[in-house]
Amino acid sequence: MKIIDGQFLADSIKQKLAIQVHARSDRPGLAIILVGDDPGSHVYVNLKKRAAEYIGIDFHLYTFAADAKAEEIEQALDWLNADDSIDGILIQLPLPSHLDEDKLVARIAPTKDADGFHPLNIKRYLAHEPDTQAPGLIEGIMILIQQTQPNIKGLHAAVCANSSIFALPLTEALEQQGAQVTTFLRPMPSDAKKMQSFDIIILAVGKKYFLEAENAKNDAMIIDVGYNRDIDGISGDAHLDSFHDTDVAITPVPGGVGPMTVAILLKRVTELHDRRNKNLILQ
To answer: Measured between alpha carbons, how far is residue 35 from residues 103, 107, 111, 228, 241 in Å?
Structure first.
């Protein structure tokens, strides 16, 4: 088994960003909306806060009670959209069940969409419009894949995900690199047995140990986006220990996709800041 070290790659990206940002007189600004008391969300927000402060990005956190009304959050988003000191806005997911995630994400100004999952930005990316990018999570996954296997042309990839908002841009990014992609949307446990023929497997299912070694090729690459917390701690969608005696290359949880997602998020915030400043100069 080969561990794909997302933390190492993320630290390299953050170090470069810190040098660039600290050399400037202006500072990018990131605002995060956090609703409720989900433990995983608080962990990720704290990671983003520490990374932002290390790089030199102004970090603004806006917290809401778990029973907050949508109107309260919409008002905060509208205010942040209009705030010139904020370059990127992110809503930490998941949200409490009474809130419409898609509607609130769509309320973010597309030009301040730090995660890249605004429906307009997804639509533009899938349409191959100029100057568009895959969502940051997708970019992070592709970097992890390419660090392990620079050329994936002709390889067979499986995308196992609960959300088409995630699956569609990931499929597009893989196909742009020449991979042949099969998507398993909201996969059932029986679908895990279908993974044996795939060279690359991306898991974003939210089911602990969805994939065991017996259901994957001996030399497959597995990118585990899953994050599952129970009394035993944190685990991914793949049963990491079961791959110990294989030649599989796999991202651990934690320490794989998560750190890369944070690093790419902050890279995007600096890019949004530069783009907004360039547009102001042109005006």
So the answer is: 15, 16, 23, 19, 34
CATH superfamily assigned to domain 136-258: NAD(P)-binding Rossmann-like Domain (3.40.50.720)
Furthest CA-CA distance within the chain: 60
- 99-135 confidence digits (pLDDT tens): 999 999 999 999 999 999 999 999 999 999 988 999 9
**CATH architecture of residue range(s) 23-111:** 3-Layer(aba) Sandwich (3.40)
pLDDT at 280: 52
Give one word for 233, left, alpha or beta, with left for phi > 0 and alpha for psi -120 to 50. Answer: left
Interval 237-255: pLDDT, tens: 999 999 999 999 999 999 9
8 A C-beta contact, residue 53 and residue 59: yes
